[in-house]
Predict the 3D structure of the following.
Amino acid sequence: MVPFGFFHVNMAMVWLVAMIVLLAVEAAVPGLVSIWFALGALAALISAALGAPLWLQCLWFVLISVGTLALTRPLAKKYVNSRVQPTNADVLIGKECVVTEEIDNLLDQGQVTVRGMTWTARSAAEGGKIPKGSVVVVERIEGVKLIVSAKEQK
């Protein structure tokens, strides 16, 4: 029992509640968020049940939480949600398209047609202009704009 104002708090119950709350957060949120801290709370709960002083309980909580986080987070990030699902638009990267409205980054204008669809486009070259009718290649997608570069002539 730890004195807290007029109350005496059973720290084992505090750690148990903390662990349950952290596990509930982990279950409710996608991805790994608080599992490491729940393990730290479990270590602190065990030390409280064995009669350890409050400072030692807190030390166990911090050491176990930080230790498990440091050891397992890189592995968890690698294997959990590691598959990047390309969107339909990602198939446009590397495709050739035709400029249907002159691309001028300074005037914030330009359009291309690719696979029968018209897209807003900007030049990958800084301040670049690409005339209407040019053939360009899609380099990347930023939001709803295609970033294109002039096709290299052979």
